[in-house]
From TrEMBL:
It comes from the Bacteria. Residues 34-94 form the HTH tetR-type domain. This is TetR/AcrR family transcriptional regulator. Pfam families: TetR_C_1, TetR_N. Keywords: DNA-binding, Transcription, Transcription regulation. Residues 57-76 bind DNA.
């Protein structure tokens, strides 16, 4: 078997891939290292959880571990690389659905696991869905979501679009919820407080003539609902209803758990 070509990419990129997939073991010779890469990543996650992602720095992670900041560079090149490792570590907590479930139930399971992950690790809203780490835990979850969507029998390009839409929908809802919570905690001003402080708007600039649709929705109680998990799940249901219609139109009916037509 030929040896894999390791010269693709840049030296920095290859080093990052090795950290994600094959981190170096502690040296058997020389001075004994006090830490492991896993301990450094875990400490970074704790700093982000307790102090906020904006406060994450190599110095603060080192302080959390009780070591000098420069010693961390023995384990990871810098903060950006550390953040990639943190993301992959967080994704490791995502459970996978049972494969004997219908495709829709499996996709819904993935969405709820993503939502739970963002609630458990709110700092993840600073990640970029279009530049996710090529780590084992991220890719394992993505592979399984693609597999579940592919059970619809839809074309591969559509499978990719649907999977990306599901992840994007949950990410967007989580980002809104997490951001509002963090702003309230930082400023002491809740969402209700924010709008109450600007209530003069309604009697001075707001008119039903300019905003007739919003007025009608308000009068019918359409803005009364508090944000809850059901809010983002409503969007997920609409999304998957559309996928079901696509699958039915393309294959004569929704696919079963094994990918066959029901």
């Amino acid at each position: 078997m030929d040896e894999p070509d390791t010269e693709y990419g840049t030296p920095e990129g290859r080093a990052m891939i090795r950290l994600l997939w094959d981190p170096p073991p502690p040296p058997t010779r020389g001075p004994r290292q006090r830490l492991t890469l896993e301990q450094v990543v875990a400490a970074a996650v704790e700093v982000a959880a307790t102090q906020g992602i904006d406060e994450l720095s190599m110095r603060k992670v080192a302080q959390h571990l009780g070591v000098g900041a420069m010693s961390l560079y023995t384990y990871v090149p810098g903060k950006d690389e550390l953040f990639e490792l943190m993301i992959d570590r967080a994704w490791a907590g995502r459970r996978l659905p049972q494969r004997d479930l219908p495709w829709r139930a499996q996709v819904e399971f993935h969405a709820r696991e993503a939502w739970r992950m963002y609630q458990e690790h709110p700092w993840l809203i600073r990640s970029n869905l279009w530049r996710m780490p090529l780590g084992p835990h991220v890719l394992d979850a993505q592979e399984d979501l693609y597999r579940a969507v592919a059970l619809t029998g839809l074309p591969e390009a559509t499978v990719s679009r649907v999977a990306n839409l599901v992840e994007s929908h949950v990410f967007g809802a989580a980002r809104a919820a997490v951001t509002d919570t963090s702003v309230s905690a930082r400023t002491g001003v809740t969402q209700d407080d924010y709008y109450e402080s600007r209530s003069s708007f309604w009697g001075t600039y707001y008119t039903a003539g300019r905003f007739p649709t919003m007025t009608r929705i308000w009068e019918k109680g359409g803005f009364d609902e508090e944000y809850s998990d059901d809010t983002w799940e409503f969007g997920l249901r609409l999304l998957l209803d559309g996928v079901e219609r696509l699958a039915a139109a393309g294959s004569g009916g929704p696919a079963g758990p094994d990918g066959s037509d029901r």
